[in-house]
Amino acid sequence: MQKAHKKLPVQGQEAWSLGMELPKLSFPTFCPTRIRDAAYGGKTQDVLDQLDSYDMNDAAYGVVLLECCASHDIQPNHVDLARALLDRGPDLKVHDSCGYTPLHYAARGNGYASVDMVALLLDSHANVFPCTYTTAPLVLAIRGFCHYVAGSKERHLNCRRIARLLLRAGAPLSDRIFFQLNDVRVCEWAAVQEDFLATEQLIFDLRAAGSPQAYRMESRKRVLLLRSLALKGRAEPRDARMTFLVESPNEIVWKVLEYWRTELDC
After folding, report:
1. CA dist., res. 245 & res. 238, Å (int)
2. Mean pLDDT, to the nearest integer, of 175-191?
3. Average pLDDT in the chain
4. Contact predicate 67/40, CB 8 Å
């Protein structure tokens, strides 16, 4: 007899309404609740020991990974568990009733190691594009700037770093991204928050440039323009980096620009 499918509950208020009726999805496989609870707590060895007691497929491993990433405080032990699960070949497309995948949950920036979790998932080819009826992981990263409680500064920095990772991975700049930026800007404290402003500027610059590659080239062009003006006495370098570039021969300047880091690369 086939075992009943169980649905993973949406975590708290993080799965906000998307302004449309979402289909009620069940996971395509059975996964014991005690394993999912242990995964949410990042209990790596406990989870692995229990997994060995069941004959689970890749979708079931995906459910466990989803619970691990849904933690409200992702720590290094969660990342260790995720890495062990990824070695077993989980289905990274598994999602909850809101369409949120492991990458969606990790992109919220909850916890010290959430950035490492996102990087791990992207290295494993997690999809940065939204499902047909839900939002994109990048929207959830931007939404993280709305939170203003104890520990918010750490989360905001996480969200900034996660946004960079998602953009480098090719996250699309849809209208929904810019709607979310406007929603965050309504919060007076967020409108002057350094990490949010840097992320917002990066997204607008990327849209203007057309692609990450073009964005990086525009940055190098600006550096060369400033250097040219400085050499003609029409501008002065403001920091040690520009002073070095102004005083260096062209061959060295070009070599330095090959490794020039932009906001997207930090």
Report:
1. 12
2. 82
3. 83
4. yes
Residue 107 and residue 118 in contact, taking contact as beta carbons nearer than 8 Å: yes
Domains, the chain, with CATH or none: 1-9+20-134 (1.25.40.20), 211-266 (no CATH)
CA–CA separation, 222 and 6 (whole Å): 55
Angle of helix 152-168 versus helix 114-123 axis, rounded to 10 = 10
Q: Which residues, at least 6 apart from 250, have a Cβ–Cβ distance to it below 8 Å?
A: none
Greatest CA separation found in the chain? 83
- Which tens digits make up the pLDDT trace of 192-224? 688 999 999 999 999 999 988 888 888 888 889
Give the tokens for residue 87.
């070695």
Distance of CA 199 to the CA centre of its chain: 12
CA nearest neighbour of 120 among 152, 162, 157, 172: 162
Tell me the pTM: 0.78
Angle, alpha carbons 81-87-88 (nearest 5°): 95
DSSP string computed for the chain: -PPPP-PPPP-TTTS---SSPPP----SS---HHHHHHHHTT-HHHHHHHHTTS---HHHHHHHHHHHHT-SS--HHHHHHHHHHHTT---TT---TT---HHHHHTT--STTHHHHHHHHHHTT---S--TTS--HHHHHHHGGG--STTHHHHHHHHHHHHHHHHHTT----HHHHHHHHHHHTSTTGGG-HHHHHHHHHHHHHHHHSSHHHHHHHHHHHHHHHHHHHHTTS----SHHHHHHHHS-HHHHHHHHHT---TTT-
User: Does residue 57 surpass a pLDDT of 80?
Assistant: no
**Residue 164 pLDDT class (50, 70, 90 cuts):** very high
